[in-house]
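Troubleshooting log. The previous run stalled partway through. Resubmitting the same two chains, unchanged.
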Amino acid sequence: EDQVTQSPEALRLQEGESSSLNCSYTVSGLRGLFWYRQDPGKGPEFLFTLYSAGEEKEKERLKATLTKKESFLHITAPKPEDSATYLCAVQVSGGYQKVTFGTGTKLQVIP
Amino acid sequence: DVKVTQSSRYLVKRTGEKVFLECVQDMDHENMFWYRQDPGLGLRLIYFSYDVKMKEKGDIPEGYSVSREKKERFSLILESASTNQTSMYLCASSLGFRGSYNEQFFGPGTRLTVL
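Second attempt completed without errors. Output:
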């Protein structure tokens, strides 16, 4: 069974304090890994797609990386507006467009 | 920009009522999805559709049905609402064809409460 595990469940950072969120996965064959940001009471907002080990994507203070077993979302010098829940999802080979989501990391950035 | 809209942000229904949740996307996407999101359980797939009139069961289809009569519209139906269906319901769409991989774009969600 495909599994996606995110850690930590919650993370509290001071403004400017860089850190990383982890997404580890166990799937039969990875086709793509997705990162989303979700604000309270809203739908997830797409951030990145990673397709193969070694790939990296960046957007403002966020950088996503991928290995054969896990992905990291690095947050550099975070600001309070980066506070949100970050979700990871994987799509496996051979299926339709179905993805499996992790339960997310809730990030709080304190001024 | 892709836009996915859902018919209601908040909905309160009684046990046993038939409930319709509507989702519309404006980017001619092939695939549409219905999820529910509960604290500690994450997003769980209820149903998805890869074409008009086509549907596939997700991980938790029991108690739900879906309809896709037009490409842009995907409806989720709770035949007889129960209290354990109280949840946040999220609709999503993605561009790709069968076998390809594409990010999903989500609507704002419907917070359903069943009393």
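Takeaways: Chain B touches chain A at residues 4, 31, 33, 40-45, 48, 50, 56, 58, 90, 92, 94, 96, 98-109, 111 (CB under 8 Å). Chain B has no helices and eleven strands.
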